[in-house]
Amino acid sequence: MQVFKKIGLGFAAMLASLNAFADYSWNFPEPVTPMALDTLHVHNKFMLITMVIFVVVLAIMIYSIFAHRKNKGYKAVADKAPSTAVEIFWVLVPFFILLLIDFVIMGIPAYHSVVMMEDTRDKATMVIKVTGSQWRWQYEYLDGEAQGIKFVSNLTTTDDQQKNLAEKSENYLLEVDNHLVLPVGEKVRILMTSSDVLHNWWVPQFGSSRVAVPGFIRETWVQVDKAGTYRGQCKELCGKGHGYMPVVVDALPMEEYKVWVAAKKAEIEKAGEIKEMTKEDLVAQGKGVYEKNCAVCHQVNGAGLPPAFPAMTGSKIALGPVFGADGKYLKDGHLDRLLNGKGVMPSWKATLNDTEIAAVITYERQALGNAATVDPIVQPAQVKAARQ
Amino acid sequence: MSATTVAHDDVHHDHPTGIMRWLTTTNHKDIGTMYLTFSLVMFLVGGAMVLGIRAELFQPGLQLMNPDFYNQLIGVHALIMIFAALMPAATGFANWMIPLQIGAPDMALPRLNNWGFWLLPPSAILLTLPFTLALFGIGDGAIATGWTFYPPLSVQGGIGVDFAIFAVHLLGVSSVMGSINIIVTLFNMRAPGMTLMKMPMFAWGWLITAFLLVATIPVLAGAVTMLLTDRHFGTHFFDAAGGGDPIMFQHLFWFFGHPEVYILLLPVWGFIPQILQTFSRKPMYGYKAQVYSLWAIGALAVVVWAHHFFTAGMPVPALLYFMYSTMAISLPLAVLFFCWIKTMWKGSMTFETPMLFAVGWIILFGIGGLTGLVLADVAADAQYHNSYFVVAHFHYTLFAGGIMGIMAGVYYWLPKMTGNMYDENLGKLHFWLTAISFNLTFIPQFFVGLAGMPRRIPDYALQFAEFNMISTISAFALGLSQLLFVYIIIKCVKGGKKATDKVWEGSEGLEWTLPSPPPYHSFTEQPVIK
After folding, report:
1. The domain spanning residue A73 has which CATH number?
2. Residue in B120, B112, B102 with CA at minimum distance from that of residue B37
3. Total structural domains in chain A?
4. What is the domain range of residue B61?
5. Which of A113, A268, A275, A279 has the fewest other C-beta atoms within 10 Å?
6. Residue at which a domain ends, from A218, A238, A271
7. What is d(CA B165, CA B143) in angstroms, rounded to the nearest whole number?
8. Considering the domain boundaries, does residue B293 fall inside one?
9. Is the domain of A244 the same as that of A307?
10. Which residue of B61, B331, B334 is in closest CB contact with A164?
11. A204 shares its domain with A191
């Protein structure tokens, strides 16, 4: 066993020296939740065990390769099968070594990790709902003082950066407009679902990842013990925007978190106000909404990606009537398509507020090479009425 | 490859020549040759696709392709490599070598054999046709869901998904027919005196593979058919809105998908010990222990499937069961590794190319196996799952464990098949180029995976840039090295030093008692095993 220890220590030293290269990352990033810390320990321990196995086995084999060569005049020693009790014992040695490693050295800590990972409710102080959709995350606070806060988190890395036309920002592809904000030190139960296909909400420093399944609720939990901003990505292939729906979480100390909650509530209240807007204001606001939510399929210039994603420019829907003679929105009209979706086109009812829907419709009708004459603009109040 | 076998035709037989020979043949060696050639061609096609992927990942940003096309490449690369490169290679060896190894004149069901092969080219066309159709504005390209077909993404997808479903059906039918043929041959056509426990290890590996295929391919066929009806006929097997469950597909798929890993590896575990014993010049160690271990792995293979989607969410007892049962696979594997090394131990070893590949295979497959052991841990799997760590892990098992194993087999049996020795120096060069560039491609992927890079993304954050660049450069070296492999094979088929019947000094077994290349009807008189 002395030899094993030495080799183990040697490897530990080697790993430590590898960690000295600060620019590269050789292992999991710094853990900030109990789960991630546990995962890192489990990982390090298992890696060490498997490396020891690997090195020992390799050493035996390499010794044999150099010692038992024909060109050194080594004559083969005939041994056909384990026939005596001693030989059978030797075949079973690796079996029992692995039995010990699998079910005792690795198996027992693994059991505790699983139980900890799946205990989402015990001592949880708040609940949030995370909804994956192509290709953005929606967050909703379900209880406590933040109850009712609900927003969408979109990638902010520009198209130009992705196409190498502009310099890439520091957090290229890992930056969003609205960060999820969580209080430090609180156990947060996360309910996970999806509005379309499978997604997976993953922040490497949190050590938890769970698939968002449409029509089902899955659970996980995080307890961020260190204030900071943490970044991750969707981890389940979810279509062409799979690489473009990052997760960004701000962990704030409780007092700062409370300030954020108050500010966010005020902001949402203000955004929800319905007021009469001019065409110019609607188009200006609509441009932002469009580029965040629609451009990924219909493209920034409105050209779309036919046949899957039709062009906005010259579109029959964007130029045709929105409302019927009775003032109600038409089936398969512009507003209907946004509120209810069709096929690959998602419903935006729950994602965008009245003003945003009115603005983006007006933008699509009056910009991107379009100039609709029937129903040229849509007012927030009309959207609000249409929802009822 | 076996053009020279024509010379050994018995004169009273009337065999068509030229193209008709290959279209109508029911000869196990001709069909084996076609399987192996098909596999080699598709290996290059799948390889070219992955070089496109690696080129895109050379630097952050989108340089060469849009994300949708990228997603198509990753899925079709995997489907081609698994179904059209690795599986046909193993079946090709089975066709060539099983009758030779058990002293039979041919496979038991020669016409089925012919049919099994001729289903492959249409399915390869089905897989790749959507790329071409998209160029003419028909559909939006090939399947873009990865090779796993997960709904609802695959329900949302375009005609590429339908093409892939039908391709998988054809490939599945072909595999089941090949398996039935192998099972029937092994049970009925062994030479007198060759009891089951005297069968060559390669035959054992294939027998278990064949049972796994017959057991699991129908489940895959059912799953993709349900997907097809969900897509076009309004069923809701995998749609919660109609009472279905998307995760049920994952259970069905991986009930096939995990055994599939062993389907790809068991034939290799069969002939690697034969190579080791040949070049160690002593009988393989622990024949019985190896056979029992292969059975144990075959049995465990069908009861561990859910470890492929721990993060999809399941009850704690299920997580624990699938974790512990997965870990248990390492027990018979440890016995196998022990036997392989013990076979080499105190042998009189030489290191021709097949032996180099076999030894390199033990080391690299060992890395794949050990990383698989840590992946079984549910908590750690939350981090590894769908990251590049997993990509590196399964390329150690399937490229090193699968394809490099197949390469060992190619060098080992090529002289027997063609009657000519391959160029030993070039073979050794091919080994070293492959082994080194393979490691330089995939070791960096372990590190980017641990650092948090998800798989199946066309573009990535700046922190992953250096490792991806190393990986891409090495991948091109790995890809180009395979052209040398093709050259070596062609050169060997065309000529070279004549091979003796025994080919290798230490070779044992019935296939080495026949001339190189063997006569058209392998054993016209049954040899007797004492």
Report:
1. 1.10.287
2. B120
3. 3
4. 28-456+466-512
5. A275
6. A271
7. 9
8. yes
9. no
10. B61
11. yes
B34: left (phi over 0), alpha (psi -120 to 50) or beta: alpha
Do A296 and A237 share a structural domain? Answer: no
* CA separation for the pair B312, A193 (Å, rounded): 11
Q: Does B379 touch chain A (CB under 8 A)?
A: yes
At residue A300, the pLDDT reads 86
State whether A113 and B378 contact (CB < 8 Å): yes
- Give B80 to chain A, closest Cα distance, Å: 19
State whether A110 and B323 contact (CB < 8 Å).
Answer: yes
**pTM for the model:** 0.87
What is the rounded average pLDDT for all residues in chain B?
92
A130 and A259 share one domain: yes
Q: State residue A331's pLDDT score.
A: 87
Q: Check whether residue A140 and residue A262 sit in a common domain.
A: yes
Any A CB within 8 A of B327 CB: yes
How is residue A146 annotated by DSSP? T
pLDDT of residue A82: 63
Query: Which stretch of A64-68, A151-155, B136-140, B403-407 has the lowest confidence by average pLDDT?
Result: B136-140
Query: Which residues in chain A have Cβ-Cβ distances shorter than 8 Å to B373?
Result: 46, 50, 102, 106
Residue of B225 and A308 predicted with greater confidence: B225
Substitution target from A70, A156, A192 for chain B, most B beta carbons within 10 A: A70
Say whether both A245 and A261 belong to one domain.
yes
The answer to whether residue B139 sits within a structural domain is: yes
Please answer yes or no on whether B379 and A110 come within 8 Å at the CB atom. yes
**Residues A247 and A231: beta-carbon distance below 8 Å:** yes
Prediction ipTM score? 0.89
Residue A43's domain spans which residues?
2-118
Q: Which of A50, A91, A172 sits opposite B461 (nearest CB)?
A: A172
Same domain as A264, residue A143 = yes
How close does chain A come to B452, measured CA to CA in Å?
A: 6
Interchain proximity A114–B245, CB inside 8 Å: no
Q: How far is B332 from chain A (nearest CA, A)?
A: 7
CATH of the domain at A332: 1.10.760.10
Cα–Cα distance measured from residue B217 to residue A385, given in angstroms and rounded to the nearest whole number: 54
Which residues in chain B touch residue A22, judged by CB atoms under 8 angstroms apart? Answer: none
A191 touches chain B (CB under 8 A): no
Torsion sign over Cα B62, B68, B74, B77: negative
Let me know if residue B1 belongs to a domain: no
Are the CB atoms for B306 and B334 separated by under 8 Å?
Answer: no
pLDDT at A299: 87
